[in-house]
Each structure stands twice: as C-alpha cells, then as structure tokens.
Design goal:
The protein has 221 residues and is α/β, with parallel strands linked by helices. 41% of the residues lie in helices and 19% in strands. Strands 3-2-1-4-5-7-6 form a seven-stranded mixed β-sheet, sandwiched between helices. The termini are far apart.
C-alpha cells in the first residue's frame, strides 16, 4: 500500500482534547521503557529536545523517569501546547519542562544544541520526512543519544482498520479516524532506512510491535 499523507498539524480544539484525554498509557510507558533500553540503562542528563511533543504526556513521563534532565518540547499546534502546559503545571514540573511553539524547519529554539533528542509520532505527519532527520542532525550535540518512535504503515487498508478496531475501539470517533489516517501516512522500515542513509545519520530502525517502529542510536561524536 502506498503512503497516503495526512495534515501535518493536529490543531483543532476537539482533536487536541481527544488526543490529550485518550488512553495512551501502554504505548507511552512503552516509549519510556524502550528509550531506557536504548540508553543501556543510563539516565538522561542535561537538556533534552522533544520534537513534536503534542500535549506533553511523553515529555512528562520522561521527566519523571529521568529526574536529572530538563526538557524542551516543541510543537506547531497551539491547542496541543495549551493542554501540555496545563498538564505540566498540574504535576509541578514547570521548572524542568518548557514548551515552545515552533515549526520545522526554522523553529526558534532556546538552545543551539541539545544533550539528547527524542520524538514520538511526529514522522508520519511530515510531508517531507527529512525535516525530522535534519532537525535532529542540527540540534543534537555530537554524540547525543537519539530516540524516535513512530507508527509503521500496514500492508493494506484492511489491516489498518483491524489495528484501529484492536487498539482504539473505545476511543472517540475523531481519535479512531486520526489513528486510521496516521497508519496510512506512516512509513515502512525500508523507507526509514533510506531516509537515514540520505541524512547521513548512524541510527538503527527496529520493529517493536505490530504498529510501531523505533529509530535510535547516537549522533557521530
């Protein structure tokens, strides 16, 4: 099945609220577990850049699991960031997490280089996937750990519908439709490997579930 792009930003109020209120406990905790595994059990330190942070649920989880780091979360959708800032305030993490409205390429970040770069479910939204890899190459310091998790495009629309029925049957209709279209817009492992080769990034692609991939490693020192 060929990739079918979807809108890059999720900025409708209903859409943002449904996403923020959805039950992402399992995949988001899995993100943190896989991130820790990719680090070899080491703790994140310094300032971490979270690309496409959305309502900051993963940003918050990473902050709680890795108390020695601070995080800058970047997203282009104001509605998502508004919900994220409220969630950060509820957990008392305002001193450790800063959210920035920005759109790549060209986002105005507080720092030139970051000690680590993470991203969840941003890649499939991008019309040009190189935007993500170039942002990582530009803003990660030499030797910085990188961890990206995203959806994997299924072989057919029928398989995409089955994944929606399996994992999002209890969610609002708007979220089910978003999930379906995100699956159709996701990239395949071989496509991601080609993207990394083009970008010159020494990162590894790994299938971690029936719908998720991770891309991880360290930038060249």
């Amino acid at each position: 099945m060929e990739r079918i792009p979807e809108p890059e930003l999720m900025d409708e109020a209903e859409q943002a609220r449904a996403y923020a209120e959805a039950d992402f406990e399992a995949p988001h905790e899995r993100f943190v577990e896989l991130l820790t595994d990719a680090l070899g059990g080491e703790a994140l330190r310094g300032c971490v850049l979270d690309l496409g942070c959305g309502p900051a649920d993963i940003t918050i989880r990473v902050a709680r699991h890795h108390p020695a780091c601070t995080l800058h979360g970047v997203d282009g959708a104001p509605a998502m960031l508004q919900l994220g800032k409220a969630a950060i305030a509820r957990r008392g993490l305002e001193q450790r997490i800063r959210l920035i409205e920005g759109y790549f390429p060209g986002a105005d970040l507080p720092r030139r280089h970051y000690d680590a770069v993470i991203s969840n479910s941003l890649l499939h939204h991008l019309a040009d996937p190189m935007v993500l890899w170039e942002a990582i190459a530009v803003h990660g310091r030499p030797g910085a750990p990188v961890f990206v998790m995203d959806l994997m495009r299924p072989a057919s629309r029928e398989q995409a519908r089955l994944l929606v029925d399996t994992y999002a049957a209890g969610e609002p209709e708007v979220l089910q439709q978003d999930f379906y279209h995100s699956l159709l817009a996701a990239y395949r492992p071989e496509e991601m490997k080609q993207q990394l080769e083009t970008a010159g990034l020494p990162l590894q692609v790994k299938t971690v579930s029936d719908r998720h991939l991770t891309i991880s490693g360290r930038l060249r020192a």
